[in-house]
Amino acid sequence: MPLTDKCLYWLGKDAPQASFFEQVGIVGTVADLPDVWGGILCINVDDPKEQNDTLKDMFSHPKFWSWSVYVGHDTPYSECLSDGVFNEKLAYEQWQNTKVKLSKITDRSKMEPLVGWLGINRHRRIKPVKLVESLSVYRYPIIEALYPELFSSYRFIVSETKREMLEAETLVDRIRVCKQCNGGHLNYVEVCPNCKSIDIDVQTSLHCFTCGHVGEQQSFLRRGKLECPKCITQLRHIGVDYDRPLETHICHNCSHLFVEADTISHCLSCEAQTEISELIVQKIYQLKLGQLGEYVYQHGKMLQAPELSIKGKVDAGYFENILLWLNKVALRHDEEHLLLSMHLPRLEEYSSLYGDSKLFALLDQITNRLNGLFRDTDICCQYKQDLLLVLMPKTKLSTMPVLQDKIEKLTQLIEEDLFTLHVSAFKIPDPTLNDSVKVWLAETVGSIYGSR
Ligand SMILES: [Zn+2]
Ligand SMILES: [Zn+2]
Ligand SMILES: [Zn+2]
């Protein structure tokens, strides 16, 4: 196995005689590739599915975000993951540029894979692919490959765009998805506005002025003339004896005559019937690195001094350090602080019932309400997806009932039936916290989850 850093790795048939690269190393699978940063691979296989699977497999291994990957033949899927169709000269030049960028990253192992992947090659974009066999129709292969444990790549995109890790570049499509299962396979069907039956037809009716009878045109035909089947009046002149009603549809279920049918959506995946206006609209974008993403790429980490309020909540690592420090200060100076936890136990359920966009709207509402409650000196952290921790310096546990009352009043303002919030409080200092803040928090979080 050649291991020079000018080696092109080749998976599949027709390995070229290299002129720009010093060597060509043939590999059978992704597992044969060396464990190095910033290599280059070309996948040249006939079966598009094998090519797609190999690409996906590759990006699910750490480090490979730093590699350049080319393919023998383009597919819509490979366009989302590879750097294009292999051309030795172009690939070599791009690879050199990529390696220069990579060499400037000081701690590659700590780099967020997606940020690193986008940062070292500025031609790269997060692209959606349309997969008709998939529930959500549109998927983001690079997100799914780099973060295989994610439940929804769309939700990831929405939240990362919101905090400006990513930035939307081009709108690719706008789709409607089922509010129950987020499925994109919907059938739009016209129904009776009265009883919602799908058993409706177009029908031309006549309206007899003499007796007021309305019926299908066919039933008025007698011996080649128009005659009302009810009052036997001959209908000679339209507008004088009879007219055609505006209602041109009939329901075979309830006999209702109507002008215009209602349209509802029928989810082909979960059978849910939904009014069109209640479907969730998803905007499918092609994306690039956002402002915060650029910062993280340049500095290798999150902002060091975030605003100490829920408006600019801190990340988990930062929160742990502050908690440990405050605990030590409290022990030494005999002070008392409060750690408040807010658990939103039905968040996951909410998301599966109403969809991602509504979940984010709810989180927004919660944030807005809570922003008014805390002081500038309180430090807030979304420690788990459904768990907010707030560190309130110089607050005694005895003030908890007042606080809880306030929070309850605020949450009652949130207009969602499913919304519940459980508040618990913990006294700081706790001498056992000094041993390991991570273990202490894990136990505390466990007790919060366990008590429900
Ligand atoms: Zn009907
Ligand atoms: Zn009549
Ligand atoms: Zn559905």
UniProtKB/TrEMBL annotation:
This is Diguanylate cyclase. InterPro entries: GGDEF_dom, Nucleotide_cyclase, Rev_trsase/Diguanyl_cyclase, TackOD1. Pfam families: GGDEF (PF00990), TackOD1 (PF18551). It comes from the Bacteria. Residues 107-288 form the Thaumarchaeal output domain. Residues 327-415 form the GGDEF domain.
